[in-house]
User: Fold this.
Amino acid sequence: MANIISDETIDYVGILAKLELSSEEKEQAKKDMGRMLDYIDKLNELDTEGVEPMSHIFPVSNVFREDKVVNGDGREFTLANVPERKDDCLVVPKTIVG
Amino acid sequence: MSLMKLTATGLGKKIQNKEVSVTEAVNAALDAIEKKEEKINSFVTIDREGALKRAKEVQQLIDRGELKSNLAGVPVAIKDNMCTEGMLTTCSSKILSNFVPMYTAEAVLNLEKAGAVIVGKTNMDEFAMGSTTETSYYGATKNPWNTAHVTGGSSGGSCAAVAAEECIYALGSDTGGSIRQPSSFCGVTGMKPTYGTVSRYGLIAYGSSLDQIGPVAKDVTDCAAILEVIASHDPKDSTSVKRDDYNFTSALVDDVKGIKIGIPRDYFGAGLDGEVKEAVLNAAKELEKKGAILEEFDLSLVDYAIPAYYIIACAEASSNLARFDGVKYGYRTSEYNGLHNMYKKSRSEGFGQEVKRRIMLGSFVLSSGYYDAYYIKALKTKALIKKAFDAAFAKYDVILGPVAPTTAPEIGKSLSDPLKMYLGDIYTISANLAGLPGISLPCGTDSKGLPIGMQLLGDCFKEKNIIRAAYAFEQTREYRHSPLSLS
Assistant:
C-alpha cells in the first residue's frame, strides 16, 4: 500500500468529520482510506496541466432573486423536529463556560 | 388480470375511463405490499391510511373533471430520501429515523398535482451511498427475481417495488447510477434526466452536483410520461434549469432510421460478464435491424471516472452531511459531555459504516494540503471527461452500452470489499460527472434467470434521443414480470 494513513491523520480527519471512532474503527478506517487513496492516485496518470477545474457542467452564473418573504412565520416548521425543545427555543448543551 | 400488472399510463387510462376506481387501484397496491413485503423489504414506510384517504380525494377531482393526467390515481412509491410532508423520511439512516418533514420535495409535489397517490417510502442504501441497498439501517431489500440476490442500489427499494408489483411506478435518485443500476438488476426501466431537469428541492443531498431525481417504471412510455410531470424549473433549486421543451412523450416513436449509435469499446472490455456483453450487443443489433447506424469508438478516460467521482461525491457528502448534528432534527445521543461530544456521539451512533467512510474520505480530500492534489484534480478530470463526451456526441445521437459489469450479486457478497463494489459503477458514473441523461432498460436474462440491462446515454438536454431509441428497442421485446410479482 503506497498511502499509509497515520494515527495523527485519522485523528485529524475525525475532528474535521466530527466523528468519534473506536480504536477498532480507527484501524479499519486507516486501511480503507489508504486503499482508496491508492486507487484514487490513478488520476496522477492524467495530464491536467492547463485544464480549468469544472465545478458546474453548464455555464451558469449566480442565481439572484428579490429577497421577498414568501413563507410566513416558520417557527413551528423549524422547531417541529428538534430533539429537545423548551418553549420556542431548541435546547443544546452549554456552549460558553462562564 | 391483476391491476398491478399494468403500466402507469395503462392504469391511468382505465381510471380516467372509469373502468377502475382510484380506491381499487390503491387497494391492489396495498394488498400486494402486504403479501410480498415480508419476502422483499422494499419499503421503509407504508402509508395505508393516508393512501386510501388520498384515493377518495383524487377520485372526486377526476369525477369533477379537474384531474385529467394519465397518472391521476395511480399508486406510486417514493425513495426515502425525498421529503414528504407529514410522512417519515429516513434516508434509510438511524440518524433520520424519527424525521417527519414539514414540506414536500418539489418533484413529489409535481406528481401530487397530477393526482398521484403515494403508498409509501422505499428502502435505499443509507443516504444513497451504496450499490446494493444493503447499507440501509432497515435491512437489505431483496431482488424480486431471486431473493438471495441484491436489488442493486441505491434506489433498490424503488426498483424492487416496481418489479415485485407492489406499486405501479416509483421515483428514485441517481448520483452515480443509483436509478439505472438497480433498474437493470431488477428488470425494470429507469431514467436519469439531464442534471437540473428535475428540482432537487426536498431531496436530501448526497453529492449535490451529481444528484438527479428520475422515474422507475415498467416501460419507456411510463418513464417519459412521469418525467414530463416531475420536470420543472424551480427557483428554490439554484441549479434547476429552465428548459425549452418538456414534451418527452413526443419522442415515443418506433423509428430509429438513420439514428447514429456509438458503442464505446472501452465499455465492452475486461471485467464485463460474457452473458451481459452478449445480451447488450444483441440489443444493439435489434436497433441496427430497425435502421440505426452502429459504430464502435473509443470514449477514453473511462478508468478515471470512478476515482474522480468518489473524490467529488465524498467531498460534497462530507459538507452536505455536516447538517446532521443532533441539534435541529434527527437522532441525538442520550448521554454526552458538552456540545462537541454531543455532535460527535450523535453522528457516530447515527451514521452507518459506509456513510462514515465517505464522510471521512470527503473531509480528507478537502482538507488543507490535500485540496489541490485530490479535489481540484478530480474537477479537472471531470472537465476532461465532459470533453470526451462532447466529442462523442458530435458524432453520435446515442451511446449504447451495459449498465453494470454483471447481473445482481448475491446478498452479503459486496460490502466486505467497498472498492470492488465501487468498481461496479464504472458504466454509469460518467453520466453523472458529465450531467448526461441516461436510461436503463431490460434486454435479456442470464443463465441464472437474473435480468440484464442495457444503457443508453444522450447528450445534455437530449432525453428525446434516448427515449426514442429505448422505445424502438422495447417494441422488439415483451415485458417480463418478475417471479415474485407473479406469486
